């Protein structure tokens, strides 16, 4: 069975707290959704704001190959003619072939929100859809609050669907707008409705009970051939159904068609791209596309996946553009170290004692507060140092950090540093927005004349974690730093009761790792 996928990230997803897509964001997301193979993209509600209307003008200039653009709107007002209604005029100004109209299907909303008679609502639906069909539009009808309405007043909810169907709607979309439906309820109701009306049905769910994905899947099992949702599940309140989970579930797990399997490798990249456009930090625990979706930490798990990944992975991560990861921690065993060593191109398969020594050292360090899960750079350096495979690129003679503050001006930070490289001593100073930034600037300044490749390296993230609150400002602190050279990112870690010392450890590992990369390129 073929399923259509309808993305409403640009309209429903944009109603999520903390999201405000620009016009350019919306156009770029549309292009990515088209590349992926999404069938319909709901561009917005023309007339609700100038940006959405401008989107519909500019989206015509995109060379879309797979996606149809849909304009969203509501039914006409109670006593207006469709051709005179401002809502409909705005939809027509969008000039899309496809239009989605939302109408009330729960009698509670008709009486308390619209404050019209039940029969009047049916006429509003009829007038809206009939007029749009007379103009040659393809009309999808979103039956808002359908499942709540069906449970409270089945007869009226079905009357709403029949009004839309008789007016010529090409698709009836059953909406769990409040997100309160249970999967078994959705399946039973969809099955009953599909048997009653001979037309095409869609599903639109929200995630207020953490069931949006399950409800969408059960609706498809019940007979829906069209699924609406958003990338990453963005949406109002708790969000909409997450297409990044629904699509691989239906295609990889259940054998449905709709998007070609060989396009699914784009899924993780699409998820990250929309996060970037939304200016939100990706949730690493998202199924299928999250950084942790195929990450293994326990020693037993790692031992098993080295023999057969299927033991702890429900699909091949490459199918959705993800990859297997092994996390090294105090829960790790020998298999974890062997796996990571192989990832770092270090062959210690026959060096069992070396692997045990590394594990012992890691566990001792993690007892003190180190964490290597987000610090692969420090981990690789540790392994190579333990095996005697790493050389020192520089030697610290000493550094001093000064922070000066008076009553009126913001604080000033300055660091002086002295390092030795190949018996040559370099003594320099630099300022910064804080003591760590000043120290970082001074260290780079001292080393760049010896190692010009450091100029391409940027510190992109700096995290500080106080490991125990009972010691107050004397508490042990863990610093995680992420660096990038534009081609790859690497994390490093430092731990100390002194935050400057912890930062120094992570900074040095970051520079050491960059120099290691450059050295390996030359060999």
Can you describe this structure?
- The protein has 2 domains: 256 residues, TIM Barrel (Alpha-Beta Barrel), CATH 3.20.20; 128 residues, 2-Layer Sandwich (Double Stranded RNA Binding Domain), CATH 3.30.160.
- Strands 1-2-3-4-5-6-7-8 form an 8-stranded parallel barrel, surrounded by 8 helices.
- Helix 8 packs parallel to helix 9, helix 12 packs across helix 13 and helix 16 runs parallel beside helix 17.
- The protein has 523 residues and is an alpha/beta fold.
- The chain contains 17 helices and 16 strands.
What's the short story on this structure?
The chain is α/β, with parallel strands linked by helices. Helices cover 40% and strands 20% of the residues.
What attributes characterize this protein structure?
523 residues, alpha/beta, TIM Barrel, Double Stranded RNA Binding Domain, 2 domains, eight-stranded parallel β-barrel, three-stranded antiparallel β-sheet, 17 helices, 40% helix
How many structural domains in the coordinates? 2
CATH architecture of the largest domain: Alpha-Beta Barrel
- The 3D shape can be described as elongated
Mean pLDDT: 90
Low-confidence region ranges: none
What's the count of strands?
A: 16
Biggest sheet features: 8 strands, parallel, barrel
What's the gyration radius in Å?
29 Å
Strands ordered across the widest β-sheet:
1-2-3-4-5-6-7-8
Secondary-structure-derived class: alpha/beta
CATH topology name of the largest domain, in short, is: TIM Barrel
Q: Please, what is the oligomeric state?
A: single chain
Terminal CA distance reads 53 Å
Query: Helical element count?
Result: 17
Q: What's the CATH H-level homologous superfamily of the largest domain?
A: Aldolase class I
Strand content: 15-25%
Helix content: 25-40%
Q: Please write the CATH class name of the largest domain.
A: Alpha Beta
């Amino acid at each position: 069975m073929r399923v259509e996928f309808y993305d409403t990230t640009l309209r429903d997803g944009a109603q999520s707290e903390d999201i405000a897509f620009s016009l350019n964001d919306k156009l770029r997301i549309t292009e990515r959704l088209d590349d992926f193979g999404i069938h319909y993209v709901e561009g917005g509600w023309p007339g609700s704001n100038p940006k959405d209307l401008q989107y519909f003008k500019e989206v015509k200039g995109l060379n879309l190959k797979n996606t149809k653009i849909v304009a969203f709107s509501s039914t006409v007002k109670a006593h207006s003619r469709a051709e005179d209604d401002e809502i409909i005029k705005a939809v027509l100004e969008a000039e899309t072939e496809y239009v989605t109209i939302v109408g009330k299907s729960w009698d509670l909303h008709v009486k308390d929100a619209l404050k019209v008679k039940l029969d009047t609502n049916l006429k509003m639906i009829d007038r809206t859809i009939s007029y749009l069909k007379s103009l040659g539009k393809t009309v999808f009808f979103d039956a808002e609050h359908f499942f709540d309405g069906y449970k409270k007043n089945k007869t009226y909810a079905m009357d709403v669907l029949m009004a839309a169907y008789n007016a010529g709607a090409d698709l009836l979309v059953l909406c769990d707008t409040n997100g309160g439906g249970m999967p078994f309820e959705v399946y039973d109701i969809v099955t009953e409705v599909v048997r009653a009306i001979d037309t095409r049905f869609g599903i639109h769910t929200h995630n207020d009970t953490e069931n949006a994905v399950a409800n969408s899947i059960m609706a498809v099992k019940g007979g829906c051939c069209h699924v609406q949702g958003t990338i990453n599940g963005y949406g109002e309140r708790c969000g909409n159904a997450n297409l990044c989970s629904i699509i691989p579930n239906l295609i990889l797990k259940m054998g449905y068609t709709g998007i070609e399997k060989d396009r699914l490798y784009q899924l993780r990249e699409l998820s990250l791209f929309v996060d970037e456009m939304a200016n939100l930090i990706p949730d690493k625990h998202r199924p299928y596309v999250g950084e942790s979706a195929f990450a293994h930490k326990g020693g037993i798990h790692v031992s098993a996946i080295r023999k057969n990944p299927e033991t702890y992975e429900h699909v091949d991560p490459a199918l959705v553009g993800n990859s297997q990861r092994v996390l090294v921690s105090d829960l790790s065993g020998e298999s974890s170290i062997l796996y990571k060593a192989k990832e770092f191109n270090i062959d210690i398969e026959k060096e069992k004692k070396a692997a045990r020594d590394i594990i012992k050292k890691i566990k001792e360090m993690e007892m003190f507060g180190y964490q290597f899960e987000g610090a692969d750079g420090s981990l690789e350096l540790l392994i190579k140092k333990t095996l005697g495979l790493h050389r020192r690129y520089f030697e610290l003679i000493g550094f001093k950090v000064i922070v000066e503050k008076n009553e009126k001006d913001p604080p000033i930070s300055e660091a002086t540093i002295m390092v030795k490289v190949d018996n040559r001593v370099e003594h320099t100073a630099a300022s910064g927005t804080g003591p760590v930034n000043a120290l970082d600037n001074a260290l780079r300044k001292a080393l760049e004349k010896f190692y010009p490749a450091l100029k391409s390296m940027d510190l992109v993230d700096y995290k500080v974690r106080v490991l125990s609150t009972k010691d107050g400002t004397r508490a042990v602190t863990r610093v995680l730093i992420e660096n990038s050279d534009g081609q790859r990112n690497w994390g490093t870690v430092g731990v100390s009761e002194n935050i400057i010392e912890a930062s120094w450890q992570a900074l040095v590992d970051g520079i050491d790792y960059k120099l290691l990369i450059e050295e390996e390129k030359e060999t």
